[in-house]
Specification:
Helix 3 packs across helix 12, helix 3 packs antiparallel against helix 14 and helix 13 runs antiparallel to helix 14. It is elongated and about 105 Å long. It contains 16 helices and 32 strands. The protein is an alpha+beta fold. A hairpin with a 2-residue loop joins strand 26 and strand 27. It folds into three domains: 244 residues, no CATH class; 53 residues, no CATH class; 203 residues, PDZ domain (Pdz3 Domain, Roll). 37% of the residues lie in helices and 26% in strands.
């Protein structure tokens, strides 16, 4: 009995609307859609490779293949060779034909001359995150259909079926190898294993690792290392596991044993090593602001700092570390926009003092001057960028507002301004960076009251009360500002240890040992140059009488932990070329990289089981497509090929895990069948496969939800 015409018409109407909406969106976002399609093709090709392995192995084993699908049902389109030509079915689940299921959908045949009919329908499914090969006699639920057909999968020897099952994984590994070989033949830029910096009080710093050290061996691996290997070695380490690291420091070799740690809020373990930066100025969203603030342009290469020649970023940081002034002089090499000739240009960049050069988990981690923490100044503002979800809500509200049912939504505008002096946030007067951060985190999605000193039109400072919103970003939060110490006014925000030096919050330092000071730079210089036994801080609170606090000179000189750094200096990451010297070398490099990523994937899965790796680090198809989109939109096509090699390796590992319904589980049961001489009981296979599908479905749902949440909140 055919379906009622009204029901069919409603389905046609719905799909027509969906089609028209899709056409409308594509027409208005052709560039975005084009990049997404390229990303989808790349990811889909890795799935095609896997399924093609099964397909070609089945054909070579004389097994009848009924369907080869890219993507999961519902089927969008199917093509099959018949005697009359190529039969094409479109949306068979919508336009069903119960009398002739093979002709369901918008079915038509192209071609006139008679052909030998084929046996395989080539399909494209609606869900593009997988695919399948349907062989005669094989079912997804583990049971095997009984048939007398000699070309049935079930009637082939166990070893031949094992070869078919293993072919998908084998082809994924082969494709990864080929992609890596191509990448290394052409040459790809990757971050080298050079230490750009270390976080104080973290494992690398405690072990004695220094900026500029080159890691030449990690955890027994030494060939073709890049900075990713450092991160991965830490992230995948076991509980309290020591990682062996060998470094080259000015041609001298040192061996270290370092145990990575996981900080509160982190999803993986780290050594506390920064990736090295180059000395080339990177692209920025607002090049005009960069030039007006620093005199720098994208592509400038720093040659000297304060008259001292530098070759590496860590050398520059060392020079800046001892520059206690409001600015630093740079000599940069710049290519002339018309002639392309290099010229040397002198610029001056503003400096600030870092709030914390370590991971701040408590107030005592803050940088300070003799235990005194300066008040905060807003160095720059970043209008909070709406997440995809927030932008979607805004567009929907804006559409509804046109009906008159609700008011037009108002976009949030950050009330804080560059140069504001932060006097209070929430319940904290003269907040330090620690209290500011905690207030923002504790009030995610809420409004926070704040007080600032702000220059008015007359150039006078006036107190302004405002309300600022704390925006949520997953487990973190922010309000859209970058803060630094206000060094121009020697106002104290906090004394970290009153037993060492007790100066109350809000006090202004007016003199050191009776020598007047106008800013914190003066204070630091006087402390460093003092030869007496004691340093006396003279201060006032809101214009009251002068009070004093003292500290021993030797102790004072030790208790200056601040580190000057540029307020704005965007630099590219250091990258080296990884290129093979010839085809043989490329094969060797590609082989090592394939084996490494396969091993890393297994180690990640082990880490998930032992809880050393957070499941939040795992990305599914949505996450892969999002990363692919970012790489392609940046026109990093060789990097994308490299990324696809990684994905192909991961697909191989995941599919060969030893439980049904994955290929590894099927292979395991075939080996059992070969050993015991008969198949595992069909009911047991069905039960195990059903449980496996539930687990795979739950995992897929979990990573997809994680990917979607990550996609919408970023």
């Amino acid at each position: 009995m055919s379906k009622p015409k009204s029901k069919l018409n409603s389905k046609v109407f719905i799909w027509t609307i969906i089609f028209l909406l899709a056409v409308y969106y594509v027409a208005g976002n052709i560039n975005t859609v084009g990049i997404f399609v390229l990303a989808l093709i790349g990811f889909g090709s890795m799935i095609i490779v896997h399924e093609f392995g099964h397909f070609i192995a089945a054909k070579l084993s004389d097994i009848k293949v009924e369907a080869f699908s890219i993507g999961f049902p519902p089927m969008l389109i199917g093509i099959m060779r018949t005697e009359k030509g190529f039969r094409i079915r479109i949306l068979p689940s919508v336009f069903s034909n119960e009398k002739d299921p093979d002709s369901s959908g918008l079915c038509f045949t192209i071609g006139k001359k008679k052909r030998k009919p084929g046996e395989t329908e080539y399909q494209i499914g609606l869900i593009p995150f997988g695919g399948f090969v349907k062989m005669l006699g094989q079912e997804d639920m583990g049971e095997v259909k009984s048939t007398d057909d000699p070309r049935s999968y079930a009637n082939k020897p166990a070893l031949k079926r094992l070869a078919v099952i293993s072919a998908g994984v084998s082809l994924n590994i082969l494709s990864a190898l080929i992609l890596f070989i191509v990448v290394f033949l052409v040459g790809i830029k990757l971050p080298p294993t050079i230490v750009g910096g270390v976080v104080p009080d973290m494992p690398a710093a405690k072990a004695g690792i220094l900026p500029g050290d080159k890691i030449i061996e990690i955890d027994g691996r030494s060939k073709d290392l890049d900075f990713t290997d450092i991160r991965v070695a830490a992230a995948l380490s076991g509980d309290n596991e020591e990682i062996s690291i060998k470094i080259d420091r000015n041609s001298e070799i040192f061996d270290f044993k370092i145990t990575p740690i996981k900080q509160p809020g982190d999803t993986h373990k780290v050594f506390g090593i920064f990736q090295a930066l180059s000395l080339e100025v990177s692209k920025v969203d607002d090049p005009n602001n960069l030039y007006e603030t620093t005199g720098l342009k994208t592509g400038d290469v720093i040659k000297s700092v304060n008259g001292q020649d530098v070759q590496y970023s860590w050398e520059m940081q060392e020079v800046l570390k001892n520059t206690f002034a409001g600015s630093a002089s740079l000599l940069v090499e710049r290519k002339h926009k018309d002639t392309g000739q290099a010229e040397l240009v002198k610029v001056s960049i503003p400096l600030s003092i870092s709030l914390a050069d370590r991971i701040v988990t408590k107030r005592s981690d803050l940088n300070h001057i003799c235990m005194l923490v300066p008040q905060l100044r807003i160095a720059s503002t970043n209008q909070p960028k709406a997440t995809r979800l927030e932008r979607l809500k805004y567009h929907i509200s804006n559409l509804i507002s046109k009906t008159g049912l609700i008011d037009k939504p108002v976009k949030y505008k950050l009330p804080l301004k560059e140069g504001d002096i932060l006097l209070a946030i929430d319940k904290h007067e003269y907040p330090t960076f620690y209290e500011l951060r905690e207030s923002v985190k504790d009030n995610k999605g809420k409004d926070l009251s704040a007080k600032v000193f702000r220059l008015n039109e007359k150039g006078e400072q006036e107190k302004v009360e405002i309300v600022v919103k704390s925006f949520s970003r997953g487990e973190d939060a922010y309000i859209g500002i970058n803060t630094v110490f206000d060094l121009e006014q020697p106002v104290v925000a906090a004394s970290l240890d009153p037993n060492i030096l007790n100066v109350p919050a809000g006090a202004t330092i007016i003199a050191i040992n009776n020598t007047k000071v106008g800013n914190w730079y003066d204070i630091i210089k006087l402390i460093k140059n003092e030869t007496g036994s004691k340093i006396i801080f003279q201060y006032q609170i809101t214009g009251t009488e002068t009070k004093t606090a003292g500290i021993a000179t030797n102790l004072a000189k030790k208790l200056i932990t601040i580190s000057p750094e540029p307020e704005i200096l965007p630099l590219n990451l250091m990258q080296n070329s990884y290129k093979a010297e010839g085809p043989i070398a490329a094969i060797m490099m590609g082989s090592r990289r394939t084996v490494r990523f396969i091993a890393m994937t297994y180690a990640t899965l082990k880490g998930l089981l032992t809880r050393n790796v957070s499941p939040k680090n795992i990305q599914g198809p949505v996450g892969v497509l999002d990363m692919s989109y970012s790489i392609i939109s940046g026109k990093q096509y060789l990097t994308y090929i490299y990324f696809m090699g990684i994905i192909s390796s991961c697909i191989a590992v995941f599919n060969f895990l030893p439980f049904l319904p994955l290929d590894g589980g099927l292979a395991l049961f075939l080996l059992i069948e070969k050993i015991k001489g008969s198949p595992v009981n069909a009911k047991i296979q069905v039960a195990i496969t059903s449980f496996g599908w539930i687990m795979v479905g739950a995992l897929a749902l979990y990573v997809t939800i994680n990917d979607i949440i990550r996609f919408f909140i970023m």
